[in-house]
Design a protein that fits this description.
The protein is mainly α and 205 residues long. Helix content is 69%, strand content 0%. 23% of the residues are buried.
């Protein structure tokens, strides 16, 4: 790898580490309480370096959110085209949530912040690069899975239900850190329940 390539790899790793530290400290101390200085110190860089990558705390969390969504989309794109969109979505969410190095319960904190801090949610408005990229990729995914514009509502419903399922499953482990195997079982049971309908509960696992 060239020296320029190594520099870019290091910069990407620092950007990722800062975003992860922002989420971790925000989940531990509260979004309003955590400071840029504390996040930078957690990674071993200065606050000035933090601002070389992000304008503020919100942007760091938007970057993390975009990275998670991108990973889910990548997992979805790798699923068989003849698989139902719900089964593909469930498998993609389970893969991404269970394979991440961070405490998956921190995703619950991020989901909560998306409800309480509108500045964290990504929007397609021409100014939010991450948001524009996510929306464009979603539209391409719909096209690839032969879901035309009339079916976008269904696609969003599936993805929204899956996200809620993840949140409910993770909240059931909020007091105890689950093993990846335990988390996978909980998520699969949650998705099976959604798939079968909510009229009758499935046997617990």
């Amino acid at each position: 790898m060239t020296s320029a390539g190594l520099r870019e790899t290091k910069k990407a790793a620092t950007r990722q580490a800062l975003a992860v530290a922002m989420l971790r400290l925000s989940a531990r101390d509260g979004f309003d309480t955590v400071s840029v200085e504390a996040v930078a110190a957690e990674v071993g860089v200065s606050a000035r370096t933090f601002h070389n990558y992000f304008a503020g705390k919100e942007e760091a969390l938007r970057f993390y959110l975009a990275e998670v969504i991108g990973a889910i989309f990548s997992a979805l794109e790798a699923r068989p085209l003849d698989e139902s969109f719900w089964d593909s979505t469930a498998a993609a969410f389970i893969e991404v949530v269970c394979d991440r190095a961070e405490d998956p319960r921190e995703l619950v904190h991020l989901m909560t912040l998306m409800d309480t801090e509108p500045s964290i949610a990504m929007k397609k408005n021409g100014d939010d690069v991450d948001g524009d990229a996510v929306v464009a990729r979603f539209e391409e995914l719909c096209r690839r899975r032969s879901i035309d514009s009339a079916g976008v509502g269904y696609t969003r419903l599936v993805l929204g239900c899956a996200a809620v399922g993840v949140r409910v499953a993770l909240e059931s482990h909020v007091d105890v850190t689950p093993s990846r195997a335990e988390l996978r079982v909980t998520l699969q049971h949650t998705f099976d329940q959604i798939r079968s309908g909510l009229g009758t509960p499935l046997p617990t696992v």
